[in-house]
Amino acid sequence: MPNAERCRASGFTLLETLVSLAILTLALLLGVDAFLQHARVTQRMENERQAYRALESTLEAVRAGVLPLSSTWLEGFTTAVGTPAPRDLRVWLQVDPLPTPGLYELHLQATYTLEGLKVTKNLHSEVYHP
Q1: Which of 32, 42, 86, 123 is 20 to 30 A (C-alpha) from 14?
Q2: List of residues 6+ apart from 45 with CB closer than 8 A
């Protein structure tokens, strides 16, 4: 009899096995969710980076005199590094003269859609063009 009692006490009960399987299942589901969210977060960050890159390149083009100081929509951005910009990325450039001669205030607004939602990023600066 002592051997039979020792065998019963040395294993897992059915309840302990079910609880451990439930905990393992929950941990795996959380891991899969985090993995699936990673792709969305990466895409959102990449689109935001490309929008700011478009805003900065537009601002630099105005400062360099490549773009005229006039309010306009700009689109069709391509970048040499990273993933392509969102297809519907558009930049609104608004130019307002300031009281000081030759000084202009620039309002730049990038818009694009991500997962069906419209996203807007803004940049403001001043430019001196005599």
Answers
A1: 32
A2: none
Bridge partners, 107 (sequence order): 94, 124
* Structural domain spans, the chain: 2-128
**How far apart are alpha carbons 130 and 125 in whole angstroms?**
16
How is residue 83 written in tokens?
């993933």
pLDDT (tens, 9 = 90+) of the chain, 130 residues, equals: 556 555 556 778 888 899 999 999 999 988 888 888 888 888 889 889 999 999 999 999 999 989 899 999 998 877 656 677 888 899 999 999 999 999 999 999 999 998 889 999 999 999 998 8
Amino acid at 124: H
Gap between the Cα atoms of 111 and 120, Å rounded: 5
Q: Nearest 10 degrees: CA dihedral of 36, 38, 39, 44?
A: 130
Instruction: Give the Cα separation of 94 and 5 in Å (integer).
Output: 85
Q: What is the pTM of this model?
A: 0.70
